[in-house]
Amino acid sequence: MEGAAKLEQDIKFRNMTLADLPDVMVIEHESFTLPWSEEAFRNELTHNHFARYQIMEYHGEPIAYAGMWTILDEAHVTNIAVRTAYRGRHLGEKLLRRMMEWAAELGMVRMTLEVRVSNTVARALYEKMGFAPAGVRKGYYSDNHEDAIIMWCELPRSQSETGEGSESLW
Question: Is 114 a catalytic residue?
Answer without folding.
Answer: yes
